[in-house]
Design goal:
Length: 82
């Protein structure tokens, strides 16, 4: 997924991207797990659970500089294969 080109957060592509990211980030996590939130408000400093992170990404938007998603388990190898 590449969210860099998605500027309009009202578009279904953005919502799909957010859900894809959340699925990826939380796939091996138990309910209530807190992860660094890549929204423009938290900027990977504050941690949020999945529900709050989804809200943040829809309301504040994702940090456009945050790619690759190394903090959430995506390896450099996977990125090279995209
Ligand atoms: Zn946030």
């Amino acid at each position: 997924m590449n969210h860099k080109g998605v500027k309009d957060r009202q578009k279904p592509e953005y919502l799909a991207g957010v859900n894809e990211f959340l699925h990826f980030a939380f796939i091996r996590k138990s309910d209530g797990t807190m992860l660094k939130c890549p929204c423009l408000n938290c900027r990977l400093v504050l941690s949020q659970n999945r529900k709050n992170m989804q809200c943040h990404l829809l309301v504040y938007g994702i940090d456009p500089t945050y790619n690759p998603w190394v903090s959430h388990g995506e390896s450099i190898q996977e990125i090279d294969n995209e």
